[in-house]
Amino acid sequence: MARRGSGPPSPATIAASASRSVPLVKPSPLPSRVRPSATATYWRLLSYARRHWLLFVLSFVGFLIYGLSNAAFAHVMKLLIDSIQAGERRELFFPALIVALFAARGVGSFMGSYSLASVGKELVHDLQLRLYDTFSAMPARRYDDMESSELITKVTYGVGNVADSVTTSLKVILQEGLYVLGLLGYIFWLNWRLATVFLLVAPLIGWLAALTGKTFRRITRKMINSQGQIIQSASESIRGFREIRIFGTQQPMREKFRVASDLFRRQARKMDLVKAVSSPLVQMMVSLALALLIWLALNPVTGGTMSAGEFIAFLLAVSMLVKPIKDLTEVYSSLQRGIGSAEVLFDYLDLEPEADTGSDQTPLRSADLRFEQVSFRYRPDAEPVLQDVSFEVRQGQIVALVGRSGEGKSTIAKLLPRFYEVSSGRILIDGRDIRSLPLRTLRSKIAFVSQDNFLVSGSIRENICFGQPDVTEAALAEAVRLAHVDEFASRMPQGLDSPVGDNGSLLSGGQRQRIAIARAFLKDAPIIILDEATSALDPDSEVYIKDALEHLSRNRTTLIITHRLGAIRKVDKIIVLSRGRLAEQGTHQELMARGGIYAGLAAEDRMDSGPKA
Q: Does residue 49 register a pLDDT over 50?
């Protein structure tokens, strides 16, 4: 607690606190591995677009036409000057030829640009889908290690850089690269001795490009991490605006955002600095080579016996090289940023999905549950959350799991659908180890209702039918009635088609609960898990929800996780967890008569729920 009269924290204190909360380089939760070379990364990136090979061919042909037509323009100038010197006035031929060349240049540029842009859009679409599939199939432990903002950054900022690499960068490389090759070919054809001088500067350009490329990729990886921190900080400020204002933490939260934004700004400035230095250096090298080339061409000793047309064409072709080489040097930074982003994306694409080793397709005959000596810890070096827990739930029974916070109640709810694997022991359904069942089969038998249920942005109807698009109107109406959704939906202007807002922000907590219960009714799974499903509700909502849950639990194997003991007195069995172990089990009357842990919890519950002064 702050001392009275100490005043608000100083800016230096706020900055230090924010700096500690936002590390400059966030440690990656991904397993370390040897990074492939930039070339290998880029070829792998292009391999994802292999099915669009026809568009690649069209783009190459288009840019080839573009490059050859530009090189041909210099040769037309040679023919024109030689024709004038020879006294031949071909008034229509040369104008028509120039128009034809520029028409071919335009057609080639269109073919190349549009085809390659289409490849880029398809590739971005494919990568986003692959990333989504990877994230949706990750083991639950990965979600524990990562933040949602980190995953969102990969799908948006990371893929955007890859798109820039594939479209803009590859377009310039092909278009201007073929342009340069066409001009160099023509220069060599005119005078190969002079043209050889130009190649002397190539090793220097290559060395500088390799040096800056490594720097670009390293900075890009840091920029992606800092972008994730920016998204995280902004998301927290939007999501928690009530708490931030109530507790007066606007300034610390702003400072946290500023530190993340400042990190991104500094990395971006480094990127701009390297780009700003490397591009003029390369252009200076090229200009020196071109100056030497022109000087040699003007020298009668080295220039040889070139005609006036050949000499003008040679100088024109050499001068035309400046722009495409400049564009090629500038695009290298964009290309390396794309490769740096692709390296990060591939780290995620290479993550192993959750193990689905089950192959037993035999239909389940019952929903009997049995836990046999189940132990679990979230990490190998962590303390066990559950230790040798054994209990049985017969089909149709309602069993409550109770205990203080952190005793492992919710962990049992996560182990049953195999979000996590048991460290030892086994869990059985209908006498079969759940690890022998395919994940889809296992999870199709389980419905889940929690205190904080997930709702998608959409209508009430869409959320009730979540995962069950082929439901009939009769089944939907029955679920709505049993879950008492009609009680509030009928008062809304659009009924079941009324929007729920972002994660149900337009609804009350009780209304969100009833939608989740209706969703569970529609699934009609034989096993129900209720995790604090009646916590933190107003009395009116609690009446509706208790009635709905009673209907939902009928003839289904039901696990209730709760700390409100007054709601579970009539269940078939109560299991009491203490320090990760099964401490007691029995009915309410049996456990109260025993006078153990449960009786103590019940006494505390009566005190908490009693009248307040």
A: yes
Half-sphere exposure of 153 (CA within 13 A, CB side): 23
pLDDT tens for residues 304-318? 566 777 777 877 787
pLDDT single digits (tens) 365-391: 889 999 999 999 988 888 899 999 999
- Rounded to a whole number of angstroms, the distance between the first and last alpha carbons of the chain is 27
Owner of token pair 């930074």 = 333
d(CA 394, CA 558): 9
Pairing of strands 398-402, 369-376: unpaired
Task: Please report how the helices 53-85 and 93-136 are oriented relative to each other, as an axis angle in degrees rounded to 10.
Answer: 160
Provide Rg for the chain, Cα atoms.
Answer: 35
Residue count of the chain: 613
Taking Cα atoms as reference points, which of 332, 205, 206, 335 lies closest to residue 281? 205
At 50, list the tokens: 């292999």
Which residues fall within 8 angstroms of residue 588, CB to CB, at 6 or more apart?
A: 568, 569, 570, 571, 574
Helix/strand/coil (H/E/C) assignment for every residue in 291-338: HHHHHHHHCHHHHCCCCHHHHHHHHHHHHHCHHHHHHHHHHHHHHHHH
**How far apart, in whole angstroms, are the C-alpha atoms of residue 324 and residue 67?**
10
What does DSSP assign to residue 28?
P
- Do the bridges between strand 398-402 and strand 557-561 make them parallel or antiparallel, or are there none, so unpaired? parallel
Give the span between the Cα atoms of 147 and 152, in whole angstroms: 9
Report d(CA 568, CA 562) in Å as an integer.
Answer: 8
Closest residue by Cα to residue 323 from 107, 70, 72, 60: 70
Among 220-224, 298-302, 582-586, whose mean pLDDT is lowest?
298-302
Mean pLDDT of 456-461: 88
Tell me which DSSP letter residue 6 carries: -
How crowded is the C-beta side of 201, counted as CA atoms within 13 Å?
18
Who has greater pLDDT, 91 or 52?
52
Residues 302/194, Cβ–Cβ less than 8 Å: yes
What whole-number distance in Å separates Cα of residue 81 and Cα of residue 297? 18
3-state helix, strand, coil in the chain (%, to 5): 65, 10, 25
SS (H, E, C) 482-548: HCCCHHHHCCCCCHHHCECCHHHCCCCHHHHHHHHHHHHHHHCCCEEEEECCCCCCCHHHHHHHHHH
Q: Mention every residue, 6+ apart, whose C-beta is less than 8 A from residue 46.
A: 166
The residue type of 43 is: W
Q: With contact defined as beta carbons under 8 Å apart, do 317 and 311 qualify? A: no
Q: Tokens standing for 90?
A: 């071909």
pLDDT digits (tens, 9 = 90+) for 98-149: 888 889 988 988 998 888 888 888 887 888 788 888 877 888 888 777 766 6
Residues 6 or more apart in contact with residue 23 via CB below 8 angstroms:
none
Beta-ladder partners of 358: none
Alpha-carbon dihedral 235, 239, 241, 246, rounded to 10 degrees: -120
* Sign of the CA dihedral running 379, 133, 432, 368: positive
Helix, strand or coil, per DSSP, at residue 413: helix
Amino acid at 55: L
Q: How far apart are CA 553 and CA 531, in angstroms?
A: 13
DSSP state of 467: T
